[in-house]
Specification:
Rossmann fold, 4 helices, globular
């Protein structure tokens, strides 16, 4: 269902599949692809991802000068924003469940600012 919501959001923003990547498993390969490819205007990050967690991704992003400037919007059902090691700061948080219009408004704001 979540992939469908992101696909609908991509389509509603007038973006194509080459503009938006939907990643369902985080890993160091995702970090490498972000370093080598065009810089996205926004990353929607779920904290509870298989492989590398959203917490680990955020720590890797903050440690990487090329990725540091990419804004993050966390989409989560979590009630805590620290895993004991990492904390979230300087990110916007969309609590699940959210409706597509909220996601569209948020993404459009970041697209306009880029």
């Amino acid at each position: 269902m979540e992939g469908l919501t992101l696909t609908r959001a991509r389509d509603a923003l007038g973006l194509t599949s080459s503009d938006v990547a939907i990643v369902t498993r985080l890993s160091s390969r995702v970090i490498a692809a972000l370093e080598e490819g065009p810089t996205p205007f926004l990353i929607l990050l779920d904290l509870m991802m298989p492989g590398m967690s959203g917490w680990e991704f955020r720590a890797a992003q903050l440690a990487n000068p090329k990725l540091l400037s990419i804004p993050i919007v966390v989409v989560t059902a979590a009630n805590m924003f620290s895993d004991g090691v990492h904390t979230l700061s300087d990110v916007e948080i969309l609590r699940k469940p959210f409706d597509v219009s909220t996601l569209l408004t948020t993404a459009a704001r970041y697209a306009a600012a880029s």
